[in-house]
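Here's what a typical entry looks like (Diacylglycerol kinase):
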Amino acid sequence: MDSPTSTGGLSARIVPARSSMIESIGVCGLSGVGIDKENLKKKLLIPKYLRLAIRDSIRFKDAVGVGERYFNTGELNAREEAPECPMVVFVNSRSGGRHGPELRERLQHLMGEEQVFDLFDVRPHEFVEYGLVCLEKLAGLGDFCARDTREKMRIMVAGGDGTVGWILGSLAALNRQGREPNPPVGIIPLGTGNDLARSFGWGGSFPFAWKSAVKKSLHRAITGPVCRLDSWHLLVMMPFGEVVDPPYSLKHTEDCSLDQGLEVEGPLPERVNCYEGVFYNYFSVGMDAQVAYGFHHLRNEKPYLAKGPITNKLIYSSYSCGQGWFLTPCVSDPSLRGLKNILRMHVKKVNCSEWEFIPIPKSVRAIVALNLQNYGSGRNPWGSPNPEYLEKRGFVEAHPDDGLLEIFGLKQGWHASFVMVDLISAKHIAQLCHLFPIELVADGDELNIVKVNYLFLEFRS
């Protein structure tokens, strides 16, 4: 098995969904009252000349030139020391209902504008390509403050799971390029589900009413321990010429090939389009993905509807009913009768080089590959199987840094509802490590991305 790529965070655990607000107040609220603002600012505020160098390198898209210019200005004569925990914050101003801009202003008031980035003004890859490179350039020229700032850097992300994944995916370039260390990442939860935040102890929501909550979150980011999280590379292959509108997390790539050991029924297309990306939380195929896709586009088309997590969940639930998750007769469309009719799945398990065909239960209408123990706003669909069951199925206890994905199925809306209220566990299908290809063989709107004859998905840690 390939060594899993990992990122920083707090210790992973399961956070019950119904306790998220109480826990969030405990995590970020009252206990932040006693934190001294000036002392906190001293620990995380980057020296002014470095803040300006980072800002200008991103603005002018010239990390090397800006770094050399700031090095030659004589600013280094001040011999400033790097703070205890230099930090930058990325804020998704469209998350958290209408509170995103307000939170950004609070953070900028505390830390300064140069250390707080709105994701719609500064993209995370721009910070990696220009901001961090500028610090590395200054460090290479002999600036010890820049060197220490780069080595101690931590990042906070104010947004939902998608925003956090966006940041982590951009930071993954540092590992590929050998530019370590990779900054640990903390979370201010502003999204709908916030399962990444729940898994690493940041709570299920952010108590905006508590002004001390910002200080507490930053203090925890300074003092909190670092743990590891698996990242999963996703490769999507489909026939050439199909019209695709991929999300920002998927990028077009020319480097793709199908494992020769995998047997595929029927002829393959001569030319293919390939997209690759990284996910940290989960990946789903089927009705669950269809509902999520529809909700995402509805929210983008009518942003005034997305006023906060509770409103978003109500819209999501109503969209589930409208898409046939509960009531639509599953007769004419094979994709509605069950994924077994349109999908074949092969996996490689731990310490195994051979492909194993995994049959899809005929009643399953959604398949989820889960990396965390939190899903759907703090639910645990995999459950907590006893040791005897794990041994019988060849499974091990699930952790977010074990190099394994848990694959489970949801049958229909009523089954999913019982899973979400912890009355039952989801349908366990497999636990795998190295590769996970899915073959969709029927014409249809699979994944709500494109109509295809063949769609291959390959996962590897």
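The longest strand covers residues 229-239.

More examples are in the samples folder.
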